[in-house]
Every structure is written in C-alpha cells, then in structure tokens.
Specification:
The protein is mainly α. It folds into two domains: 257 residues, no CATH class; 125 residues, no CATH class. It comes from Qipengyuania polymorpha.
Length: 394
C-alpha cells in the first residue's frame, strides 16, 4: 500500500459496528430510532455546567498555556471548530473524559495526567477525547442518538441482555475510534499508545514499542475482549497500530478480537437476528436431510417458526463452522437436532444419522457424542456406532 493509500485509510470515520447498530435500529426499531433525541435539554445542559463548576477546577489559558496549545493543535488536526472549556477533577485516578454538549467542547482531566504526559502524548490525549466529540457530531448527531437510546434502555432494570451486549460492544468500538483520533492529533501511534499505558500503570515513562511487543505476545493466545466499556489496552494498542499501517485484514481482526465467534450466551441485537436466521436455515437443511420429514417433525419446526414453508433456503454449514460459532452455540444446534429426532419416534434413527453427519460437517462430532451420553443417556457403544454409520454414509 502506497503512502497516499495509507493516508486515505487513516481517515477518521465511524467503524462498521456503529453503522450496523444504526441500520438495525432503523430497520427493526423504527419508532425507537425516530423518537431518539440527538440533543440535550436545557435542564440537562444547566445541570452539567453546574456540576462541573461545583466539583472541578476550571483551567484557564493564562495558567496552563501548554495544555491549551495542545488543545488548539489537536482541534485543528481533527477539524473541530467549537468553544472549549477544560477542567481538573479531584479524582486521583489518571484519566480524562469528554462531557458532551452539542457545539461545545468540555474536557475533564483526572489525577496527575497532565503532569505525566510529554508534549506529543498530551496531543494524543486531547485527540482521543476530542474524537468522542467529533463522533457525536458526525452524521447530524446520529451516533450520539444511538448512544442515548442505549443509555436510556439500560437505565431500566428489565433491560434485555442483547441490549446490554450491544451497548458494551458499541462502547468498545467507540474507544477504538477515539484512539485513532489520538494518533492523528499526535501524528503517530507511539504517543497514543504511551497514553494508554501511562493511564493503565500511572508511570511517568513508558516504551510504546516494548508494549506493542507485549501486545503481540498476548494476541497469540487469541480470545475476544472482555472489556465492559473499554477494550483491554493491549488490544487497543494492536488495533491502533494495524489501522495506522492500513492493514487489509483489520476488519476481520477487529471482529474476531472484539466480538469473537457468534455466541448464544452473549448475543447483541444483530447477533440475535443472525442466530434466528441461521436457525431457520439450519432447520430447512435438516428437513431436506430427512426427505422433508414427517408431519410430527414439521410441526416441531413450526413450533419455532409458525410461518415456515416448504422450500425454505437451506443453510450452508460453512456459516456455522468452528471459527464462526462457539461451543455453546454448537450445543444449541445439536439440541435442535435432538428435538427433531424426538418429535417422531418412527423417524428417530434417520434423524439421528443425519444429525451425526451434520455434526461432522460443522466440526461438532465430539460435542454431539458428549450430548448423546449426557442428555439422552446413550451408551458409549451406541454413540460410537452412530458416529461410525455417519462416517460411512458420508
């Protein structure tokens, strides 16, 4: 990739997950999306300003010229033109935060962070926090509206797990977006990564390149982020470096490291919709494997999808391969096959043979065997015989 292409790839744009959430809300929750507010009430604005004045020290340029110089440079590099107010909070934990007001920048600093950063690192910190403002301003406030919708949804005690997981992932991707803004403001990834490490450790001096080597070592262990509001620092450092270098596989890498394989135990709203679609196609495939099945089996399918019709599109098992779903979701598909097998005692053997063949194709033979022993109380001999028959049939 030439330098011009790399610079284009570094353009600060919302990540695909931001767009996916908005598309989902617009298509599946149009009333919620249309009523979602992208602004703040006068009461909210007044309360925010009062809180900041009561609980922080407001910085002025005469006393903190370097801080304001960094702020102006970062705003210029990110294309932000708005009045800005800076505050130092009394919390001792090193951090910084944007308090969003449309058309105004309000940044608060916590702990000794302003004293711990170099000039370049201060630019990166400013760029990161300003990028939150930039994102909320983008697309006529659509991303801020999305954030507000989930904030309101999660304020209720009966908020659904899928809402919580969507909000969690949205927050993780938002931090990755802001990390990119920090690198743009500083002109390099090293200061942005140094800020992440200093915030995590409280150290005054760190080596970003050494931490990247550590991040690469951790990445080799695989696994997805367990972060609630921010991805783990090592993932953020790697993600930022890959983005800065214009890595062509970054999209797939992020999906694997932030979201991970589809898991029935932690579905976001889009995952919930996807699993429903996969289930429908999977059942269509199973019916085709047993010659469309008996009336009892079809009734079982219609208990899940009342509108299920003959000739439904069959699922390509590559869509639920080992890399694309986790063990809990594999167990779910195995349970679906067991339900079909138990629906008609006259067809149990035929369905079980199809189930064993399907499990082999989706890399779930061992989990099928374990389920047969545990859930259906099959003997080892009977289980091994079924698997052998499936291998022979295949």
């Amino acid at each position: 990739m030439n330098e011009q292409s790399v610079d284009k790839a570094r353009a600060l744009e919302p990540l695909s997950y931001h767009a996916a959430v908005q598309d989902y809300l617009a298509e599946h929750e149009p009333a919620v999306w249309d009523k979602g507010s992208g602004g703040m009430s006068e009461e909210e604005l007044a309360e925010l300003r009062d809180t900041m004045l009561r609980n922080t020290y407001r910085l002025e340029e005469a006393g903190h010229p370097q801080v304001f110089a960094a702020l102006r440079t970062a705003m210029e590099r990110l294309g932000i033109d708005a009045p800005a107010t800076l505050y130092q909070a009394n919390d001792g934990t090193m951090n910084a935060s944007l308090f969003y007001v449309p058309g105004e920048v309000h940044l608060a600093f916590f702990g000794p962070i302003l004293e711990k950063l170099s000039e370049a690192e201060l630019l990166a910190l400013m760029g990161h926090e300003l990028s939150h403002y930039l994102l909320w301003q983008m697309d006529e406030g659509a991303h801020y509206r999305t954030s507000r919708i989930f904030d309101q949804a999660l304020s209720f005690a009966d908020a659904k797990p899928a809402h919580r997981e969507t909000a969690r992932l949205l927050s993780l991707y938002t931090e990755l977006f802001a990390d990119r803004g920090g690198a743009i403001a500083a002109g390099d990834t090293a200061p942005a990564i140094a800020v992440l490490v200093k915030t995590m450790t409280g150290l005054t001096s760190v080596d970003p390149e050494a931490y990247l080597r550590q991040a690469e070592e951790l990445e080799a262990k695989g696994g997805k982020s367990q972060g609630h509001s921010h991805p783990e620092v090592y993932l953020r450092a790697r993600a930022l470096k890959l983005w800065w270098e214009g890595d062509a596989q970054l999209g797939d890498w992020l999906e694997a490291r932030v979201q991970g394989p589809l898991s029935i135990e932690s579905l976001d709203l889009m995952g919930q919709h996807r699993l429903t679609s996969l289930t429908r196609g999977f059942l269509a495939r199973m019916l085709s494997e047993v010659e469309e099945g008996s009336d009892e089996i079809v009734t079982q399918v219609k208990a899940v999808f009342p509108d299920f019709a003959h000739g439904e599109e069959r699922l390509d098992l590559a869509e639920i391969s080992v890399e694309k779903i986790d063990d809990a979701t594999r167990d779910y598909f195995i349970a679906l096959m067991f339900d079909l097998a138990m629906a008609d005692s006259d067809a149990t053997d035929v369905v079980m043979l199809a189930a064993a063949k399907t499990a082999a194709s989706m890399g779930a033979t061992e989990r099928l065997k374990a389920s047969l022993r545990r859930d259906l109380k099959w003997t080892k001999t009977r289980t091994d015989k079924l698997v052998a028959q499936a291998e022979k049939a295949a």
